[in-house]
Every structure is written in C-alpha cells, then in structure tokens.
Write a structure and sequence with these properties.
single chain; 294 residues; alpha/beta; four-stranded antiparallel β-sheet; 10 helices; 18% strand
C-alpha cells in the first residue's frame, strides 16, 4: 500500500527545521545537564480512549534532523488502546530531548484529527451514508499540512488545500460582485476549465441561480433536517439531464447531529469539527536507564 507520506511536498522538511529552531532559539540548558550518552526512549500512546496513530513522517524527520532513529511498532492509521508503546527512539540523550516536545505536539494533534475523522466516517457509514465526508480550510496557519495529513490518515477527504486549489464563492464574494451569476461568470473567466467551482447558497432560489450559471458544487449552508432533504431532492429532480453538479452540506455539523445531516441526497458533507478544537491524543517519551552489564 502506498504511504500517505509520499504526498508530502519537497518543502515539508524545511517546516520541521523551523519547528526545531522555534523550540530552541538559544541555549539548551536541559541538554547541558543530560549530555550525549546514547540512550533508548519509549514513545507511549496514552490517554483514555482508542486512538488512531498519525503523523509518522513528521516524527521521523524531527528525529532524523537530530541524528536519532525511530523504530515504529505499529503502522500509521492503525488504532491502539492506551497505554501502548508505539515506537522506540534511539540517539544521544540531549538530542532525544531536543526533539521530544516538538514530536509529541505534532503527533498529539495529527493523531487527534485522525481519530476524530475516523469516528465521523464510522458514524456516517453506519448510518448508511455513501457520500464524501470532508474537512474544511479552517486550519491552523503554518500547520495546515499536518492537519490535512491527519484527515487523510483518518480516512476522510481533506477538501481544498488552499485558495488556489479550488474556486469557492461565499456570501462576501457574491455581495461584492452583485449577484451569484456575476461572481460565477467572473471566476470562470480567470479560473478556466481545470478548477471546480463551489458556491455557497442560503436558499433554493440561490441554488437554482448557481446551477444555471454553471457551478460544479452547490453548498447548502446551514440547511438541516427536512429542509435539507427536500431542497436537495428537488434540485436534483429539477435539473436532472440539464446540468451536472454535486450538493454539499456544511455549517454546524457536529458528532451529535451527524446522523441527521449524513443523508444520501447530499453528495458531500464538510465540517470543521474534525480538526478544530479536537481532543489531542496524549503521548509521552520516556528515556530508559542504560542496561547494566551482567
């Protein structure tokens, strides 16, 4: 199976260098105390619930830049029950501790997102939903690649990666342009054929206008319950054979209302609940005492 790490761009290792520089901008006082004796450390997955391991390539690179080696005892994307030794890290004590907090922070957040993503997917699939479950662009500046990576490992669609990878027209774009049709026309003139165009609408009439103007995806923002089902159904029936488009639902989707929003009249369900304010997974790195000669 191809690894998700193969998706990472050439620039990602420079980000790791920046993380390490941020965490130790000057003297390493604690490192002075422990010195450079070779040590072995256990990377433990803790917490209180079943979790998904995600963030392996980032942890590997953090320690590689510190001349340490990581041996993983489980595959990325697998679930584990705490407490679990997920990896063993070997290197000089000072260097192990230089990478400790950076690695744990990245692993905690990436695994937290993967765990929540998998839970959302499992709930939706158990409810019979066959469409796409996606995240959003509401990610942490400078940390997007890790958060999007966690969504992939958790089994969901990361949605657009940035403003350049898709045309999404929301209320501010439409108000500024004067109408949905005007906004779509202007966007198509410069975006060309290769970019999908996703338009946020707040009514069925707006959805009809967006479809007529050539939108690829219609985002029914904050539609719920019967209004979501009936609107999606009527739009597909009315435009059947005339226009091709997907219907997306977004806005206020949480774990407790996921079942009522995960309906097959909708093609895409997008939510920031899988990557904003998610519970991090607790990990710790414990240096082991040197083995005594017998």
């Amino acid at each position: 199976m191809t690894e998700y790490a193969h998706l990472l761009p050439p620039s990602w290792k420079a980000i790791v260098t920046d993380w390490l520089a941020e965490d130790t901008p000057s003297f390493d006082w604690g490192g002075y105390v422990v010195g450079e004796a070779h040590r072995e450390a256990f990377l433990l997955g803790k917490g209180k619930t079943t979790a998904v391991l995600a963030g392996v390539p980032f942890v590997d690179e953090i320690f590689a830049q510190l001349d340490c080696q990581v041996e993983w005892h489980m595959k990325e994307g697998d679930s584990f029950e705490p407490v679990k030794r997920v990896a063993t890290v070997r290197g000089k004590a000072r260097l192990l501790l230089l990478g400790e907090r950076v690695a744990l922070n990245v692993l905690a957040r990436c695994s937290g997102i993967a765990t929540k993503s998998k839970r959302f997917k499992d709930i939706a699939r158990a409810n019979g939903y066959k469409g796409v479950i996606a995240g959003t662009r509401k990610t942490t500046p400078g940390f997007r690649i890790v958060e999007k990576y966690g969504m992939l490992v958790g089994g969901i669609d990361p949605h657009r990666n940035d403003l350049s990878s898709m045309i999404m027209l929301k209320d501010n774009h439409i108000w500024s342009s004067g109408s949905i049709t005007a906004a779509i026309t202007q966007a198509r003139e410069v975006g060309g054929f290769s970019l999908l165009l996703d338009v946020e609408v707040t009514s069925e009439a707006e959805a009809d206008e967006a479809i007529e103007a050539g939108a690829d995806i219609i985002m029914l923002d904050n539609f719920e319950g019967e209004a979501l089902i009936s609107t999606a159904t009527r739009l597909k029936e009315r435009w059947n054979g005339k226009r091709k488009f997907l219907i997306e639902t977004s806005g206020g989707i949480e774990e407790d209302n996921l079942r009522e929003r995960a309906i097959n009249e909708v093609d895409i369900l997008s939510t920031s609940a899988i990557h904003q304010s998610v519970q991090h997974i607790d990990f710790s790195l414990k240096l082991q005492a040197p083995k005594k000669d017998i």
